[in-house]
Amino acid sequence: MWLPDEVFRPLGSRRVRLDVAGTDDVVLRTVHDEVTAATHRFGGALVGGPDATTGDLALTLTSDAPADGFVVGRHDAVTNVRAGSPAGLLHGLHHVVRLGEAAFADDLDERRVVPVNGIRMLDHWDNVDVHPVMGQVERGYAGGSIFYADGRVRDDLSRVAAYARLLGSVGINAVSVNNVNVHRTEARLLTDGLPDVARLAALFRPHGIRVHLSVSFAAPMTVGGLPTSDPLDADVQAWWAARVADVYDAVPDFGGFVVKADSEGQPGPFAYGRDHADGANLLARALKPFGGTVFWRAFVYDHRQDWRDRSTDRARAAHDHFAPLDGRFDDNVVLQVKYGPMDFQTREPVSPVIAAMPHTRLAVELQVTQEYTGQQKHAVWLGPQWSEILRFRPWGEGGRTVADVAAGTGADDAPRAGLVAVSNVGDDDFWTGHPLAQANLYTFARLAWSPDADPGALLDEWIGLTFPGTDPVVGETLHRVLDDSWRTYEDYTAPLGVGFMVRPGHHYGPDVDGYEYTPWGTYHFADRDGIGVDRTRATGTGFTGQFPAPWRDVYEDVTTCPDELLLFFHHVPWSHVLHSGVSVAQHVYDTHGDGAARTVENAAAWDAIAGQVPADLHARVAERLAEQVRSAHEWRDQLRTYVFRHSGIPDATGRTVY
Amino acid sequence: MWLPDEVFRPLGSRRVRLDVAGTDDVVLRTVHDEVTAATHRFGGALVGGPDATTGDLALTLTSDAPADGFVVGRHDAVTNVRAGSPAGLLHGLHHVVRLGEAAFADDLDERRVVPVNGIRMLDHWDNVDVHPVMGQVERGYAGGSIFYADGRVRDDLSRVAAYARLLGSVGINAVSVNNVNVHRTEARLLTDGLPDVARLAALFRPHGIRVHLSVSFAAPMTVGGLPTSDPLDADVQAWWAARVADVYDAVPDFGGFVVKADSEGQPGPFAYGRDHADGANLLARALKPFGGTVFWRAFVYDHRQDWRDRSTDRARAAHDHFAPLDGRFDDNVVLQVKYGPMDFQTREPVSPVIAAMPHTRLAVELQVTQEYTGQQKHAVWLGPQWSEILRFRPWGEGGRTVADVAAGTGADDAPRAGLVAVSNVGDDDFWTGHPLAQANLYTFARLAWSPDADPGALLDEWIGLTFPGTDPVVGETLHRVLDDSWRTYEDYTAPLGVGFMVRPGHHYGPDVDGYEYTPWGTYHFADRDGIGVDRTRATGTGFTGQFPAPWRDVYEDVTTCPDELLLFFHHVPWSHVLHSGVSVAQHVYDTHGDGAARTVENAAAWDAIAGQVPADLHARVAERLAEQVRSAHEWRDQLRTYVFRHSGIPDATGRTVY
């Protein structure tokens, strides 16, 4: 992972003054320990006290600096970092680490660096007990859980400590430590498990990170033995209040709850004729006295749909459920909305919920773990996707961005929240299965801090912090392999925004009709004439109408709908000519060839730097790239064959269609 | 299950003379105990000794009767059963039970009743350890194993004892007690597990049934620690000889081994450049001194096929592998051949291997457990399918039947073997999940004894033995629900012999393209123009050439190929007109409507006899019939939609196609 010792050399070889006015704080201790370790290693020194020199770097805690960030500058041969909080100082320290020697070269104008988002959170879908189908980490592709083994919290939590340090270095300030699908054992983390939750919190706390728990809405019954979980029932309210008090006894800085309710079989308020605001506010009111937050997920849809029912559209579900509730949520509720209306697909439109709830704190949820994007067998760096989502303007040119909505910027009194993502780490030696998937974790954290950052620059930042001191060809190769990898993946998988087409259940590899006749609401309706989902107001499900102008009209019209989302919004003939100038059928033939070919180029580029990176790392990446090549060709050939069998349109270039 | 006390009333209310000349034998003790119990219950008596009367029924062990069967007749008010062996006498006793009062009415001409097949075997795919994917019983749909629980042989084997009695009553004489996919724990039944195998054998022995074990070809390495499992290696041969000696020390009447080798990932002789005859003979020679038999499965094919490779045809595989080995197998090897070339589909041609190995003992393998035929959620009685297979004449009119080949009848010096099937029982309260699936177990056993029996008569026999004393409407309803149920199932599932179209992995429910792009070799090649697999010699894979005349020519020609196998042998346009007079597309629309409608009729018929059978039984069957109705309509609608989307041909009758 990032932060090998070597990246501390510039700082560690210098004299560092830590001016924290005698404050005792666990985060300041982290700052102190990092500086001490670095200076010991690289020959610098920690200097301090009233008589000491100013040093080369001064880290100062001061109330005239921003509370959650820092001010950094350099003049008179001293680099100054001034922060208004211990966490701000930690972030300032790591800012200096990222700058490297540049932090100690020319003068730097003073610059204020604060996080755009107050919430910068990672959710872990880790189960305490290994789930018979979903395993230890649901949708995890990096081995077992770093938190749990053998049905309980691990005795040895050194991996968690290392992970917390890594997250703290890039500004993550919240984690949830158990799966949103809360099973029996995990439901008891809230009660019997509190001593263990406290152990986890103690490891995250020194890095400025608060721990959260996913809870079951049915816990009053399944854990508490009450006859109901009705949010309007006084006993239920009292039960949650008592549980929350217990939690804060054990973990005074506990962050709050994450809740998946009335979703994919999880219990929720619908059972009592209550709505999601009733449900969320129940928990919010219990947490309120302690400063805790409820993260209430908007991922609610009918997962037992009948494929024969063409009137139901899963894409509509979150907006249908939640938009009418705007203004009903307490101020310590954050509505956690997946970036798209379906489910973390490679390409979806931005969820219309994001533009529909101006009076609700709304966090955008991304997926760092690559459930639908290659499962850490494929090198797919998602920075460009996330950046595109965050920069999307739901109200068109000149309007606020998705990032603005999440952060509460760009409008007066807009409610503030932030970004949440599902983590991709496990107990794998390389943390993330595919070593290059570490770039996704890094990029998410940095975008959570600065949503408008250039993702390419963040990629290079990650490369520099992870592979310091290597031949420049290593960085160039990593950049080349990853930079366009999301679009490459899109090229060889489900085309033109139609989504899914993966093997049901595990979601790896192609199965074009795999979800076509299932209860999941994920259809493409391909036949001999065409493909795609008509979600227009004119003739389809009306989903386009959930967007504000201009998108409600841009998406509605097949002539203005962007190619990359065409099949999400329209059912068109195979012969339909795209803006790109080729037919839908030919587009599949072409892009799938191009995408598969690029995986071969990437594997060759990686081969060429053998010997320039550690052998075990090189071997692991090479093995994954080989699987990506195999899988990409499988995707290419299945999609081509499927399209040809349906459309009868031959490939204009005469390539083999099996 | 069959044999409730009531069926013993005719015999039990009479005087029974058991004349066994003082022979002490565990099977004779069973006969004695059955007669004693029945006469005690119903007021008859066991009479005997030199001074006793002849009684109403005389059961006599005598060397002038057939060794494996019996002679039965009635005159002078005495029913006489004379058998040449204890097992023959047991079968004679149950023959009398089946006859009921008719056994004691009019005179009966003396009749010789002997089993057509020497081998009448049930294989159990039970795992000792619950397999993470396949569960306790692989392809089992009736709960857990009756043999194993908690990772070992059960302490309480009373269900096994009851099962052995049931099997003995219908002439089964061999069982294998563990899955042909032999995992780590199960491989040690051969060594550490022998005391437990002996316990099982002791329960089957009193019913004339010998116990067999499935073994792993790699056992010399995985269990024995040898460096190889090469069948020509002297140490390997010695290892097997020693293991077999141990087994017979523990189980003197041990039956032998069942082996799945070089099949779906199981180890086999190919790893050493040896062939299946080398592999089978290795084990046969170890077993030979003790009278044991090797059941060597012919289910060998490439399960890692590339769907893009159109030159490989899984249907060809068993014949390609085994036909050249005819004459190479030792005389205590039985080649166990699935009835069709694919895998227990609802409709397949008969395997051409059956006609290709005149110098090999060949057992035909059927599947009582309903893997592809509704998984004991659907009422599908397979008697007519099995009967049709057994009566099929691979060499045409006047030639021997499949049953002849298995039994070694109809030709001079033909090698003798018999029938094997995969059992469908588990620890379910009703033994088979779907109570009506008991009819399959019964029918298989009776067909193994008499392959030319009329299956409808066997169905009525089962009804009479399982529901004695009920209102006639019960039997009529059961007969109506089951009699045509196999063809009904065929009607609403994969059409015209094309097979598969099931959900991958678990094989339940429709997924038309589920296996289309997989490594399993099970494709239908549907496109906008047509569907089916060209297996002709003229333009396809040449599979038709594996059959002798006339079938090689009947199947080759699309105009003579039977409708029900058309898509197995030919790729035809959706508009191709069948012998039945309708197009392939219309056939799907029609048969799927008819089949689904019949499931509704069956459920209604069953509803009408509520109160006439035990309530728990009625409820269980009703629940399964309701699921069958749901599933049949799902099949109907998916298949219709799939065909319409591909063909564009509308249903001539204008029914809804979704």
In oligomeric terms, what are we looking at?
homodimer
Strand order in space, largest sheet of chain A: 7-12-13-14-15-16-17-18
Q: What is the tally of helical segments of chain A?
A: 20
Estimated share of beta-strand residues of chain A: 5-15%
Q: Got a strand count of chain A?
A: 20
Q: Largest inter-chain interface?
A: A-B, 24 and 23 residues
> Kindly, what is the distance between the CA atoms of the first and last residues of chain A, rounded to a whole number of angstroms?
42 Å
| Class of secondary structure makeup of chain A | alpha/beta
Structural Rg of chain A: 25 Å
Arithmetic mean of pLDDT of chain A? 97
Query: Can you tell me the overall shape of chain A?
Result: globular
Helix content of chain A: 25-40%
Low-confidence stretches of chain A: none
Largest sheet of chain A: 8 strands, parallel, barrel
